Amino acid sequence: MSSNNKKKRVFKAKMKHCPSEVRGSITHGYLTPDAKMAQVVEKDMLYFLANPSAESYRRAYVPGEFEGVPLPDGVDLAEVDFVQVIRIGEGHQARLPIPKEK
User: Fold this and answer.
1) How high is the pLDDT of residue 75?
2) pLDDT digit string (tens) for 61-94?
3) DSSP secondary structure string, the chain?
4) pTM of the model
5) Is the sign of the CA dihedral 69, 102, 56, 35 positive or negative?
6) Which helix (H) or strand (E) holds 41?
7) pLDDT at 52 over 90
């Protein structure tokens, strides 16, 4: 086999996945402390502590915050500008990616 006919080796980045489980129609993710999402969750919890009457708020999307998290079909993170954060109990929040307006 000549050097022109050699197959090129391809390396694919392995995506880390958060441990998760589906209850009802909601996927619950359990974060590792070093995950970027853990930092985002902490900031969201601080927002709700500072605003105890707030049920939700919209903030800018943080690139990488949904890495390894299962997303609904049709969600393209390249099209996301904002995240709607909804309080769903003491210390728990749901995050919904909001796509760019067209």
Assistant:
1) 85
2) 998 888 777 777 888 888 999 999 999 877 788 8
3) --GGGPPPP---PPPP---EEEETTEEEE---TTSHHHHHHHHHHHHHHH-TT-SEEEEE--TTTTTTS---TT--GGGEEEEEEEE-STT-EEEEEEEPP-
4) 0.66
5) positive
6) helix 36-50
7) yes
